[in-house]
Amino acid sequence: MTVFDVLGDPQRSEAVRVLQEHGTPIPLDRLARLVEDDAPPGSAADRAAGDGRQSRTALHHAHLPKLDDAGVIEYDPDDRVVTELDEERLRSLLATGRELLGSLER
Predict the structure, then answer these.
(1) Of 1, 23, 26, 106, whose Cβ has the fewest other Cβ atoms within 10 Å?
(2) Sign of CA dihedral 73, 90, 58, 2
(3) Are the CB atoms for 83 and 76 separated by under 8 Å?
(4) d(CA 54, CA 105)
(5) Does domain 3-105 bear CATH number 2.20.28?
(6) Is pLDDT of 102 > 70?
């Protein structure tokens, strides 16, 4: 899984930013609200905001499992809580992404 797979989706990137800002553990419902509150107008997260169900569903079924599979977070889907953000793994993925982009610029 590449950095682009992990952070290429705006809602996933926003979730990571929120986790960095607010820390863990954080329940899914709170994370979804924070992602929606910070979503730029017209973005996918903004369009999903509504009553929050679509955003929570997308985070629970798609985004958080992908971040968990990549080792960026630990997500407990039964309790619906992000229990940890692995900053070192995140930095490693971002460094790899920068290296890839740098190699394309040469």
Answers:
(1) 106
(2) negative
(3) yes
(4) 38
(5) no
(6) yes
Place of tokens 């705006």: 10
Task: Supply 2's token pair.
Answer: 């590449």
Residue 51 has pLDDT above 90, yes or no: no
With beta carbons less than 8 A apart as the criterion, state whether 9 and 63 touch: yes
- The pLDDT assigned to 63 comes to 96
3-state secondary structure 27-47: EHHHHHHHHHHCCCCCCHHHH
Burial label for 95, CB within 10 Å (0-12, 13-18, 19+), is: exposed
SS3 state at 69: helix
Please provide residue 93's backbone torsions phi and psi, each rounded to the nearest 5 degrees: -65, -45
Calculate the CA dihedral of residues 19, 5, 1, 33 and round it to 10 degrees. 20
| Nearest by Cα to 75 from 32, 33, 34 | 32
